[in-house]
Amino acid sequence: MDQSIAQQKIKDLTTEIEGKIQQVNATVCDLLYSLDLQEQGGKCDWSDIVQKFCSLSSTFSKLEQILRKPGIDFDDNAKLLKMTQLVPQIVSLEHDNTLQEITEGRLSTFDHNIVPILLRTKLKPVVEDEELSIDRDRLSKQIDVNKQIKSINAHVDMLCSKLSEFSRLHVLDRKEFQQSSHEETMKLVKAVCLGKGIQPKTSAMATTASPSKPSTSAAYQHVKPEIKR
Fold this sequence. Notes:
By secondary structure, the protein is mainly alpha-helical. It is built from 8 helices and no strands. Among the domains are: 84 residues, Up-down Bundle (Methane Monooxygenase Hydroxylase, Chain G, domain 1), CATH 1.20.58; 54 residues. Belongs to the Mediator complex subunit 8 family.
């Protein structure tokens, strides 16, 4: 690859990566501010926090795509950056305002104490120990996590089978249940239109027996008084 083309490619690539890193930095600062506000008893919009996490994940994905993008004579840009060697040209103990502005106040001089840290190709021992501890913890819990995943999958499969069986039985019940009867419908139509099948309403005549009158002879019968002697 021509050296000028490679330098221009590296310059464009670093500029694009710096832009994405600045977006990540701004999103992380907003998240930390929201979480600090929540810890201090303030109210924060959790939907906004979730949206910021989604934006952060999207930015990291775009940054990964930039690194995975095929470059000139390379499979991806990551290999191009790995084969690029940075060599400091000026080491000075004097205060540099431009450096302080670029690093957002983190560095003010580019001296002999800073150069080895910036050119470090390995993590700090403290960070390496933390990563090893995290890896050991992850490996020790991997078996328990797999058991939990299998148990949850078994419960999900059981629920899915129960729901499927319930849905199948519900469909069968709806098919077997007859909503209307053709015979009953025809009877109603004939009764309304033709009057067929309608029985006349009969009222029973109430008969009351008249009281018998006493005979005239019995009514005017004289009773002889009894004479005592």
